[in-house]
């Protein structure tokens, strides 16, 4: 696992700001992949109405990066859903989910107490406390209004109908 000092929040935020409107979320996932030495990083945004999380970006060393269409992840009975509802980081062995070796880390993305999404990382080893804290800080530091604009541009660029971004507490 990457030592905690490899996490540079300013670098992460600068990468998101420097990216094109439709690539901001992908830039976030790519930088977090390198910083955490993760096998996979995704950003999932909450769809409170549908009771799901929507995967907007994926940076992966195992599969193709971000899909052209959003992937749907259930909130109920998933570690990502627990992270969203409790607003607490969840660390889960990948083998439990049938994904082989490594550890999944789910960090809630919140804005003023409202759960709006989850950062999902597949790490090669169980993260230490410092790594968990740094990923949680990265999730907390995300600028939700900018993510909402990035989401709208991302959906528009892929020809997906209009969307309304509404933060809603699940906790």
Counting helices, strands and paired strands, the structural category is: alpha+beta
Helix content: 25-40%
Uncertain residue segments: 1-5
Main β-sheet: number of strands, strand sense, barrel status?
A: 6 strands, antiparallel
How many angstroms does the end-to-end distance come to? 31 Å
Globally, the shape reads globular
Put simply, the count of helices is 5
The whole-angstrom Rg is 15 Å
**Number of DSSP E strands:** 6
Q: How are helices and strands ordered from N to C?
A: HHEEEHEEEHH
Q: Beta-strand percentage?
A: 25-35%
Mean pLDDT: 76
Strand order of the largest sheet: 3-2-1-6-5-4
How would you characterize this protein structure?
By secondary structure, this protein is α+β, with helices and mostly antiparallel strands. Helices cover 34% and strands 26% of the residues. It is built from five helices and six strands; from the N terminus they run H-H-E-E-E-H-E-E-E-H-H. The chain has helices at 9-18, 24-36, 79-86, 129-141, 144-157, and strands spanning 40-47, 52-60, 71-74, 90-93, 103-111, 114-123. The protein has a six-stranded antiparallel sheet with strand order 3-2-1-6-5-4, with helices on both faces. Strand 5 and strand 6 (114-123) form a beta hairpin. Helix 1 (9-18) runs antiparallel to helix 2. The longest helix is centred in the last third of the chain and has 14 residues, at 144-157. It is globular and about 40 Å long. It starts with 8 loop residues before the first helix and ends in a 14-residue tail after the last helix.
């Amino acid at each position: 696992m990457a030592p905690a000092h490899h996490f540079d929040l300013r670098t992460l935020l600068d990468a998101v700001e420097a990216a094109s409107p439709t690539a901001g979320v992908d830039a976030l996932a790519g930088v977090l992949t390198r910083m955490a030495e993760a096998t996979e990083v995704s950003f999932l945004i909450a769809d409170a109405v549908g009771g799901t999380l929507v995967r907007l970006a994926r940076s992966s060393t195992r599969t193709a990066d971000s899909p052209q269409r959003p992937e749907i992840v259930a909130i109920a009975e998933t570690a990502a859903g627990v992270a969203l509802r409790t607003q607490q980081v969840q660390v889960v062995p990948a083998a439990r989910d049938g994904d082989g070796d490594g550890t999944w880390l789910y960090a809630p993305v919140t804005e003023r107490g409202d759960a709006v999404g989850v950062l999902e990382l597949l790490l090669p080893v169980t993260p230490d406390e410092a790594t968990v804290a740094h990923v949680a800080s990265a999730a907390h530091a995300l600028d939700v209004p900018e993510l909402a604009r990035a989401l709208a541009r991302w959906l528009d660029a892929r020809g997906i109908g209009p969307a309304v971004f509404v933060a809603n507490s699940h906790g």
